[in-house]
Amino acid sequence: MLASLARSLPPSTLRRPTAEFLQRNAPSPAQILRDIPLSPKVRSSLERAVLHEAMDGDWTVGRLLGISGFGLRTLHDAVTSALELRQAAAPPAGAIRAIEDELAPFLVARPRLWPRQPTPLLERAIGIIGTMAPASERTILEALAKNGLSRGGATLAQLERASRFVEVPIPYAILRRGDLCLVVPGPDLSSTQRFYSFAVRSVVSWGLASLPYLSEHSGIPRIDFLRIVVAARPSFRWLDESSSWFWFESADLRLVRSIEKALAAGALALDQLAKKMFDQRPAEFVPPLNVFAELCRQVRTLAVNDTGSVSLCPQHSQALLA
After folding, report:
1. pLDDT per position as a tens digit, 137-153
2. Overall fold of domain 254-321
3. Distance between the two ends of the chain, CA-based, in angstroms?
4. Which helix H or strand E contains 211, and what residues bound it?
5. How many other CB atoms sit within 10 Å of the CB of residue 122?
6. What are the domain boundaries of the chain?
7. Where are the beta strands (DSSP E) in the chain?
8. Dihedral through CA 97, CA 103, CA 105, CA 106, nearest 10?
9. What's the pLDDT tens digit per position in 179-224?
10. Exposure of 26 by Cβ count < 10 A (0-12 exposed, 13-18 middle, 19+ buried)?
């Protein structure tokens, strides 16, 4: 319909439209508002018509031109712009269109907001991300590439920036804390922020934590949801996935420093070392012995032998003596 109207609007038609032209089928005001870029003045005229006039029945050019503020020149300009946008959006023959191509116009310092560029891939990506939340940035970007939307060069920050300029609703929010980047359902953002802060404080204070404890004391019973939240942090490591004990790997944790100090004089049996570390702790932060053993194996400065004895690695022991 748009192409037909564009071909039927030569300069002579603009000066004196024929009766046959006025009877031609035309898009309704609602379709024009949805599909065609318009100046604010013309858009306002059509919006008033949609609100206050009957929209039923077929629409012709003559009926469309009866709307105050919408003339032949406006129709010509709007239809021409729509066709130009459609042609610009079509990829060259043999080219592979990806979301990176759609994002580029929105990533400049001052993006052009009118006429709005079509963004079918971005809108599809927004829908996919909404169904995946909660999910880490890496998981999201891998899914977009798997679905053929991305060449692998897009980032979540770029998608977030471009999403501000599209008209589809955004069903998710992005939580950023240090090196964490996590997509969560919009209504869950506040509770996720509180839980994540609580989880980080617990691990910083005690060296490790269990999800059941964090779940109970944060008031969030969805363990599977919480697993995704803590696992999105790059330094996350399971100590025992079956019982949901974990830590955020760091050589600077107070627990790690205390273990190294206790072993400076020589190796200790695992149970003796555990008694030294956890004798004065609250019970909820005393891990099972197998969890503590796994922590010692994951600390790069420690060595656990087959008999369960824990010692400093030779290189680190020499460094401490020096």
Report:
1. 999 999 999 999 999 88
2. Arc Repressor Mutant, subunit A (1.10.10)
3. 83
4. helix 211-218
5. 23
6. 2-89, 200-248, 254-321
7. 135-136, 172-177, 180-185, 209-210, 236-240, 245-248, 268-269, 302-304, 309-312
8. 160
9. 899 999 999 999 999 999 999 999 999 999 999 999 999 999 999 9
10. buried
